[in-house]
Amino acid sequence: MPTLILRHFLAHLRLYFALLIIILLILLPTFPKVLPGEHLAQIKARDFITAHTRNTPTTYYEGRQGPTGFEYELMHLFAEHLGVSLNLNAKHHPESVLSAVSEQGDFGAAALPLKPATPGVHYTRPIIQMQPLVVYRRGLHGIQEPGDLTGLELGTLSEAGTSEALRELQQDYPALSWKESTELEVAELLAQVENGTLDAAVIFDHQFRLNRLFFPNVERGFLLGDPLSMVWAVPSGRGLGLLEAANQFLQDLDESGMLDHLVNRYFGHDDYLEYVGTRTFLAHLDTRLPPFVDLFQQAASETGFDWKLLAAVGYQESHWDEEAVSPTGVRGLMMLTHPTASEMGVNNRRDAAQSIDGGARYLRSLKDRLPESITGSDRLYMAMAAYNIGLGHLYDARKITEMRGGDPNLWRDVRESLPLLQHQAWHSQTRHGYARGGEPVIYVRNIRRYYEMLEYVERSRQQFFQLERSGNDTPSLLPFELVPPRNP
């Protein structure tokens, strides 16, 4: 009897387990599961990929040719590699990039440092190395080694990776202290060093090389700690397909040499906009300008500008070199972008006649498109600034000028606002975002300087011609040869 009961019990138990297995098999397909390529498949199905990034010169911003930046070019190439369009969310700081990626985004590209075991994300293979660098205000002496930072007003960006180098240093120098910000960007940090709010700051070396021209009172100090790896971040809970695709893309880019090309183009020099000495300018007057004088004069007669002004713009753009090519791809004597050349009907940007004609007409169009409330020399200077930075960013600077209580129709007020486009607190309130706003200020100033020197040379030349006609024995000068004044 007990044996029979046991047999019935075992039979019922086997039936129970069989039914349980059947139920699980029925319900299992409805349980959520992540397939290896699910996230990547979703991206391709919707035909776009969303990148979370930052509005900074080393990452992404609206430049003279439109969207640009080292990581922007990488993101754009990656989207093309996947066969989808690129959608950007650029209103981020490094910390918010990671949270956005882990919660909803496709990937993050914002000069992110590799930090193992970050919750919610996976990191790609390294893209480039980022070396922390100490910079300090000109006039402070003896900042040559880590111990010299003790007691200084020191700042850095939170979650950017540079604070890790400071924490390691603090182990050897316990008295070391610094301020971290989740609101500022690199240009704003450098501005605080420039104006004395901070004594020094820690940023990355490549960031300083791109910004140093606009902060002449900030000195390069010393490298701090070991380099960090720049990486992209992808969400960790949605399959590995996107991570594998990104790693393969970055590997192919590295092996093809394209990655090195982009690194050299963006970070292989301090900046393409340089200060030019009087001696060099005068030498170029004699050796480079003469073949182009007739072309500048012809363009001036058709656009209403002084030919010497157009020549000054050409010198600022290319040093009167019809073969010039900038690191950002603009080219020719007047350094036209491809879209601008197309708009002006220029087929060959390296043809001096086409370049000068197209550049003059483009400057004319910018001047004509400005509001009628801007008049006189203010209108000309703002048109020149727009030639450099674009009308959109110029209008943003005018908006900031109004917000600050200035006159948006006066160049002297707008030029004070243009550098603020490098500050997140200001450019976040504008339509076009970050811009290297200090650049057009230098640009216009240089053109005015070159124009004044051309005016001086022209007057001197006319005086000597008058002496020759009057029978004076003073020898004539070759075109534009001149001994410069002591303080031109």
TrEMBL record:
Protein's name in the database: Membrane-bound lytic murein transglycosylase F
GO cellular component, one term: cell outer membrane
NCBIfam families noted in UniProt: PRK10859.1
Domain Solute-binding protein family 3/N-terminal, chain residue ranges per copy: 48-270
Keyword Hydrolase: no
UniProt EC number: 4.2.2.n1
Active site: E317
Domain notes: The N-terminal domain does not have lytic activity and probably modulates enzymatic activity. The C-terminal domain is the catalytic active domain.
Subcellular location: Cell outer membrane
Keyword Lyase found: yes
Family that this chain belongs to: Belongs to the bacterial solute-binding protein 3 family.
